[in-house]
Amino acid sequence: MSRLALAAIILAFASSAVHAQVVDPAPTPNAGSFDNAMGVPDVSALLPPAKDGEGVSSTLKILVLLTVLSLAPSILIMMTSFTRILIVLALLRQAIGTQQLPPSQVITGLSLIMTMLVMAPTWAQMKSSAVDPYFEGEIGQSEAFDRGVAPLRAFMFRQISNAENEEYVYLFVEYARQKPLAPNATLLPSEVNLSELIPAFVLSELKTAFVMGFRIYLPFLVIDMVIASILISMGMMMLPPVLISLPFKLMLFVLADGWGMVIASLLNSFV
């Protein structure tokens, strides 16, 4: 009986497959004209050409916005003060000895807020000199890019000069141009390309951040050494010094207003 039932089911499916009809999908209205045999729509018939700010449609504005948002993390990390702030705060957490406190989310959020505060004048200048004139149709895309990059270039050059790390600029200029510069050659900011300036700025920020982190480490290192010496002199070599030094480091850090001093030092380092 099972074999007969199985055969009946197979015959039923076969008959339904033979009599099945394929329904064509409904044509899409107003999908644009198709200019080739592959069925690719003519985009020029759907969107007007955008040669200046007035011709930028809402669709292209959304496309530009999505592109900027996709590149925003790289821009934020590589061309702003975020790198220095995040590294210094992370080194401070390690110097205190609290590996999970404050949490990484808190440190990253504080770094983002401080980055917005430090970069606010630069971003405001970029908006007033490039973004607003471009969307109002006063300038083209190339001129808007040049105007928008100028305040950011000035910020990066200022930080490199304040940290006396101009040698990084010469390093990447020589590598990019594949020729050594004269020993007494002087580069003007206008002669340095953006692709040569960005890695020099990142190296300068890394060096400055680690120098500040080393200075933050020193008082906590002294406390660890004093506590370890006291424990050894008392014969408590089996007791981890971290258990004793951590409360003293926290007390010293709070009484000295450590967070305020570190944040103030970071903000003043960009002035």
Description:
The protein has ten helices and no strands. The chain is an all-alpha fold. The protein has helices at 2-18, 43-46, 58-78, 82-96, 104-135, 141-162, 166-177, 194-233, 241-255, 258-269. The longest helix is centred in the last third of the chain and has 40 residues, at 194-233. 70% of the residues lie in helices and 0% in strands. The protein has a domain at 75-212. Mean pLDDT is 76; it is low at 10-14 and 16-35.
Q: Helical proportion?
A: over 70%
From the spread of the alpha carbons, the general shape counts as elongated
Output the radius of gyration: 31 Å
pLDDT < 50 stretches:
10-14, 16-35
What fraction strand? Answer: under 5%
Distance between the termini: 91 Å
Mean pLDDT: 76
Largest sheet: none
H/E topology pattern: HHHHHHHHHH
Q: How many strands appear in the DSSP assignment?
A: 0
User: Which structural class do you get from the secondary structure elements?
Assistant: mainly alpha
Task: Work out the helix count.
Answer: 10
Précis, in short:
It contains ten helices and no strands.
Attribute tags:
mainly alpha; about 270 residues; single chain; 10 helices
Strands, helices and their partners?
Layout: H1 2-18, H2 43-46, H3 58-78, H4 82-96, H5 104-135, H6 141-162, H7 166-177, H8 194-233, H9 241-255, H10 258-269
Helix pairs in contact: 4-5, 4-8, 5-6, 6-8, 7-8, 8-9
